[in-house]
Amino acid sequence: MEYIRSDKRMSGTKRVLMEALPLLDVRVGYINKNIDSSINLIQAINRLKKEKNAVLLAHYYQEPEIQDIADYIGDSLGLARRAAETEADIIVFAGVHFMAETAKIINPNKIVLLPDLNAGCSLADSCPADEFADFKAKYPDHIVISYINCSAATKAQSDIICTSSNAEHIVSQIPLDQPIIFAPDRNLGGYLNRKMGRDMVLWDGVCIVHQVFSEQKLVRLKARYSGVPVLAHPECDAPILRHADFIGSTSQIRKFAVSDKHDTFIVATEEGILHQMQKDSPTKTFIPAPPESGCNCSQCPHMRLNTIEKLYLCMEYELPEITLDENIRLSALAPIEKMLEMSKEIA
Ligand code: SF4
Question: N or C of the chain: less Cβ packing under 10 Å?
Answer without folding.
Answer: C
